[in-house]
Amino acid sequence: MTSPAKLRANRRNAAKSTGPKTAAGRAKAARNARRHGLTLPVLGDPALSREVEDIARRIEVSVTGAAADSPGHAHACRIAETLIDLKRVRDAKLPVVAELHADPTNAMAPVRALARLDRYERRALWRRRLAVREFAAAVAPAADGGTGRPSKTNPTEKGQ
Fold it and tell me: I need a labelling partner for 44 at 20 to 30 A (CA). Which of 61, 77, 80, 83 fits?
């Protein structure tokens, strides 16, 4: 059984870590996810969803020579989404880097902002790598005769 002193200590610690108490603090915390909009899905924006379709078709044609089947198209769309996410992150980093170059003596805030944006960039790169692997696996059976291994005619080609 837990001692009364330990229970009081647990309650004190819990009270310290329950988030903002004031209306201003709650309002500020509510805006955290909307700071730069990088958590929003690409397909939520109609203009970007058209761009995803265009990029996906170009990926399909460049790899397979024609439009891919439905699963292949879905994988190409995932690649396109990650490419657009990566572009959005890098576009968000540009003003922060410019601010850092403008005043290197006051670098703490821009460096923190870059660190936050780097997490988004790493995640977008990871998602792109995964999407490319899945797309390659989806279209590979047609290209390699279903073996999943590199062709013997191209020794530089690597298997996934």
Answer: 61
